[in-house]
Design brief:
Mannosyltransferase involved in glycosylphosphatidylinositol-anchor biosynthesis. Transfers the first alpha-1,4-mannose to GlcN-acyl-PI during GPI precursor assembly. Required for cell wall integrity. InterPro entries: PIG-M (IPR007704). Keywords: Endoplasmic reticulum, Glycosyltransferase, GPI-anchor biosynthesis, Membrane, Transferase, Transmembrane, Transmembrane helix. With about 400 residues, the protein is an all-alpha fold. Among the domains are: about 100 residues, no CATH class; about 170 residues, no CATH class. Helices cover about 70% and strands about 0% of the residues. It has 19 helices and no strands. Helix 9 packs parallel to helix 13, helix 14 packs antiparallel against helix 18 and helix 17 runs antiparallel to helix 18. It is globular and about 55 Å long.
């Protein structure tokens, strides 16, 4: 545990160092370090602090609860939110260590090495220290996993997952995996209704609908639209790795589109079919957290909008996927292809954004397609790895293994 404490201490120092450099960059450099979303959060909390709606801030697409958490930005420090996000970032790392400890075949050293994938990751550190709120959401998800697998308190697990779904809707994809997992039997879907699943489901549903009802009472339809509905019809082709990028770009200029031309409204169909149903059905009984990893990877890959910050959605599960990973050439080749295609996309995006050169077609289009293919190959490899495990994990058998 002492080594874990040292790891967390070093991780905290790194985040403070990144934050301090960010203050310098914001003051003296043309390109600012602080995430533009943090400005949106701060402005929204300022409106709320003055007794008005946070949605008076244009582009605020989040639950008012986030504005409530950032109210101290207005009377303590404008950087309070960054410290909050960095703190939840560290909490995620701590929970990763605690959850990894339930696997008895892992030494303390290996647990810390795996946790370092999150805690010492410069991408993760940068995202939270710039003022992005993703770490807060991921901390809620990890709390749900911790209470599900370690503490085995299904009410609290459901509470935290319901809270995370309220913050950002995508964590609902984990519901099917958890319910399949809690059946305690392989391939017996009729056993979905049991004491554990009822406790978890009731807690999750009540938490989500209670919070959502409260927010709707105070902020009306505007809350529902900006927090949830907007993301179903969102048309955003800027900084977007998605294979739908070019289609969204063209559709954004078309008026009175019919249903079949609204790609932003139907793109979620294959995305949800695979991530919400097929993956959980096939993998959740083998390795639950690795299933979360693949689900999230699929959800991001098939999403109509993909930005770099979305990668942390599945990065938090990577330590669990890698805990028993067997090195092989194919996996490293697919990973190299994933990095290469992402780099190619970024080169075309740089020419478009900073040099003013139109690279939508063929540059960005084919690089988006290549990146999508690389993602699919990597996902397929991950699925093969999980299915190759000689495991039959149920809540009861896991308890015996500890």
């Amino acid at each position: 545990m002492e080594s874990a404490t040292k790891l967390l201490f070093v991780s905290a120092i790194l985040r403070l160092a990144f934050f301090s450099f960010g203050l310098y960059q914001d003051k003296y450099m043309e390109v600012k370090y602080t995430d533009v979303d943090y400005m949106v959060f701060t402005d929204a909390s300022r409106f709320l602090y003055s007794g008005r709606s946070p949605y008076l801030r244009e582009t605020y697409r989040y639950t008012p609860l986030l504005s409530v958490l950032l109210l101290p930005n207005n009377f303590l420090s404008p950087n309070f939110g960054k410290f909050l996000f960095m703190a939840t970032d560290l909490i995620v790392g701590y929970l990763i260590i605690k959850i990894l400890a339930k696997y008895g075949n892992l030494t303390a050293l290996k647990r810390n090495i795996l946790a370092s994938i999150w805690l010492l990751n410069p991408v993760v550190i940068t995202i939270s220290s710039r003022g992005n709120s993703e770490s807060l959401l991921i901390a809620l998800i990890m709390m749900a996993i911790y209470f599900l697998l370690v503490v085995r308190n299904y009410y609290l697990s459901g509470f935290f997952l319901g809270l995370s779904i309220h913050f950002k809707i995508y964590p609902f994809i984990y519901l099917t995996s958890i319910l399949f997992y809690l059946t305690g039997q392989r391939h017996q879907i009729y056993n979905l209704i049991n004491e554990k699943s009822i406790k978890f489901s009731v807690s999750c549903i009540v938490t989500f609908f209670t919070l959502t009802s409260i927010m709707y009472y105070y902020f009306g339809y505007e809350f529902l639209y900006e927090s949830y509905i907007y993301h179903l019809v969102r048309v955003d082709h800027r900084h977007n790795f998605s294979i739908y990028n070019l289609s969204l770009y063209f559709n954004s200029s078309i008026q009175n589109k019919d249903f079949f031309n609204k790609v932003e409204s139907v793109a979620f169909i294959p995305q949800l079919l695979i991530s919400f149903f097929i993956i959980p059905l096939k993998l959740s009984k083998i390795d639950l957290i690795s299933t979360f990893f693949v689900q999230t990877f699929v959800f991001v890959t098939f999403n109509k909008v993909i930005t770099s910050q979305y990668f942390v959605w599945f990065l938090c599960f990577l330590p669990f996927y890698l805990r028993d990973f067997q090195k092989n050439t194919k996996s490293f080749l697919y990973l190299a292809l994933w990095i290469l295609t992402q780099g190619i996309w970024l080169s075309f995006a740089y020419k478009l954004e900073f040099l003013g050169i139109s690279t939508f077609y063929p540059g960005l289009f084919f690089s988006s397609c290549s990146f999508f293919i690389a993602n699919v190959l990597l996902i397929g490899d991950c699925i093969d790895h999980i299915r190759s495990k000689d495991l039959h994990i149920t809540p009861d058998s896991e308890k015996k293994n500890n």
